[in-house]
């Protein structure tokens, strides 16, 4: 059973997540023709060594069911954003690989996406609240990893790849 404070905090979190997802998806589609799901896939691949990940690792990284990922990659590959290729370390496995067109699309979409995130998420917060908020989010994430059903993702992302130089 949740306490009253826990319930109110959870509902506040849900309101933020649901509305942010809607706004981010709308902005990405309007400005770049990408969905938020496309952006999540492209971002994870751009942040990975060689811009590729095994399908299982990519599904874990973005917290999707493998079947959802497979269907989405089919649509993205039809648009030239990603490719599937045998894994160089295990030919039985398949990797999702970011194409040049996918990286170009990600780089084009990221400044507008980052501006929206800044405006909707960070502009309303006191900068002094960020360390505590980050610590709380990291603690919740660690709890989910420790007690959830998905394995721990292969790497922890620290930057939006489309905004970094030398990607």
Enumerate the strands of the largest sheet in spatial order, edge to edge or round the barrel: 1-3-2
Summed up, the domain count is: 1
The major β-sheet equals:
3 strands, antiparallel
Count of helix runs: 6
Parts with pLDDT < 50 across at least 5 consecutive residues: none
Q: Structural class, judged by helices and strands?
A: mainly alpha
Question: What does this 3D model show about the protein?
Answer:
GO terms for molecular function: DNA binding; DNA-binding transcription factor activity. It holds the Pfam family MarR_2. Keywords: DNA-binding. Residues 6-142 form the HTH marR-type domain. This is DNA-binding MarR family transcriptional regulator. The protein starts with a helix and ends in a 20-residue tail after the last helix. The chain is 61% helix and 8% strand. By secondary structure, it is mostly helical. Helix 1 packs across helix 5 and helix 2 (36-46) crosses helix 5 (100-122). The chain has helices at residues 4-32, 36-46, 55-62, 66-78, 100-122, 130-147, and strands spanning 52-54, 82-86, 94-98. It has a single domain (24-163), classed as Winged helix-like DNA-binding domain superfamily/Winged helix DNA-binding domain (Arc Repressor Mutant, subunit A), CATH 1.10.10.10. The chain is built from six helices and three strands. The longest helix is centred in the first third of the chain and has 29 residues, at 4-32. The model has no long low-confidence stretch (mean pLDDT 92). Strands 1-3-2 form a three-stranded antiparallel β-sheet.
